[in-house]
Amino acid sequence: MSVTSSSTTSGGSSLDDAPVSSFHRRIMAVAMGGPFCDGYLLGVMGVALGLITPALALDTLWTGLVAASVLIGVFIGGVVFGPITDRVGRHLMYVLNLAAFVVFSALQFFVAEAWQLVVLRLLIGVAIGADYPIASALTTELVPRRLRGPALSGLVLAWWVGYGVSYWVGWALTGLGDDAWRWMLVSGAVPALVFLVFRAGIPESPRWLASRGRIDEARAVVRKHLGPDIDADELLAEPRREQRGGSGLGNLVEIFKRGYTVPVVFCSVFWICQVAPAFAVRSFQPQMLSAFGVESTYGASALITTLAVAGIALGLVVVNRIGRRPLLISTFACITISLLALAVLPLHWAFLVVTLFAAFQFFEAAGSGLQFVYPSELFPTDLRATGVGIATAMSRVGSATSTFLLPIAADDLGVRGTLGIAVVITLAGLVVSYFLAPETKDLALKDVGLTKAVSRS
After folding, report:
1. What is the torsional sign of CA 263, 266, 267, 269?
2. Gap between the Cα atoms of 46 and 305, Å rounded
3. CA 405 from centroid of its chain's CA atoms
4. CA dist., res. 205 & res. 139, Å (int)
5. DSSP classification of residue 381
6. What does DSSP assign to residue 449?
7. Which of 7, 207, 307, 457 has its CA 20 to 30 A from that of 416?
8. pLDDT score for 145
9. What is the CA radius of gyration of the chain?
10. Cα separation of 297 and 174, whole Å?
């Protein structure tokens, strides 16, 4: 996809080239709340699942359902609420989805049967799936170009921080007796409530307002939050969409009618190939480490997860320096090699096993920041949340399927055979990325959508 950058010729700075302000930093910090909660939710389940299984008498089927239910919910949330966000705006949905997360997380403390936990985690997943397109769209549309890559990668950094924190918290709560798993799960409501409070006062996206023809409101947002020196004339160039009623699901058809099929396919496939093996390994990491003979599985998992946070931090630093395409291809190559070594090498030392698991998570995390960057940069304002929502939904099909099937596959194929399947998936992601990944680091946001086809550049 050939992309070009441009800036306004007027007297003030354009939105893309606006000086970084405290408002931009606040947007970035608040947007991280949803991914942080998502990471925390999934990470703490990795610790709690071993305690939930005997407490609720879970068999293999219910174990897979409990682990995968939140991912199924994220699929629903992304595919439904991405288009709705493009239709009704970002601001309202930005608050409601975290409020739902707080309520449903708290209710987990009172579950008595497996199906109740599955339902609640499904609903939590819907709330999180809704947050992905909302947070990424707002971040993309409110921060200047030079911050866009790090800011969107920062959403995934927040996911990893949440995931890492959850392991340490879960490990600390293991001493609370038979109900320790309940406290682990309900603890996810705490960060959600904190970020819900911080989201008060975040404005509607001026780019979205302009795409709906509400130019005066868009200018008012720019003046109030970015200052009078920012030239808002580029908002006049936003493609206009007629304000219509309905659910917004017509955008699912619109995105293909307007020629964005290849970007949808690329974003969905590379995201699936990153998260399908990663979510499965993370959900059952203590059990997999135990199968390799590692004794302190919870401690090793906490260490591995902490190193993964360093991986996404590295990705955040280099995403604007080396570019999106080299980062994606190189990290796919590294995670494929790490998984292949785990699948085929005779590993007799726990240190080497932990090192390879850590390498897998480090490099997967480094490339995972692009899960928000690419969809946000390849779709125009009026379809941005829809594009992110579709990619999010498809990725969760892969992650939910792999998480559900992993305990079943491990029974039939063993841990090494299961890791061999993961190698095939990541290798497919490497091939797709080589042929389809574009370079978008210098793209001006107002130029998004001028070219539909994705090609190497």
Report:
1. positive
2. 11
3. 21
4. 9
5. G
6. T
7. 307
8. 82
9. 21
10. 13
Structure tokens at 34: 């949803």
Separation in Å, CA 243 to CA 89, 218, 340, 379: 11, 15, 51, 19
Please name the residue ranges forming H helices in 284-383.
285-291, 297-318, 324-344, 350-368, 370-378
pLDDT at 428: 94
Q: Comparing C-alpha atoms, which of 354, 260, 240 is closest to residue 307?
A: 354
Q: Which token pair is 262?
A: 């290849």
Give me the residue label for tokens 């911050």: 147
- pLDDT for 2 equals 39
> Average pLDDT of each block of 10 consecutive residues along the chain (457 residues)?
41 74 87 85 81 83 80 83 81 79 91 90 88 84 85 84 84 85 92 86 84 85 82 65 54 84 93 87 77 77 79 88 93 94 82 88 91 88 86 80 71 78 92 92 67 46
Write out the two tokens for 394: 């498809």
Closest CA to 126 of 61, 81, 166: 81
Crossing angle for the helix pair 297-318 and 324-344, to the nearest 10 degrees: 160
In whole angstroms, give the CA distance from residue 325 to residue 61: 39
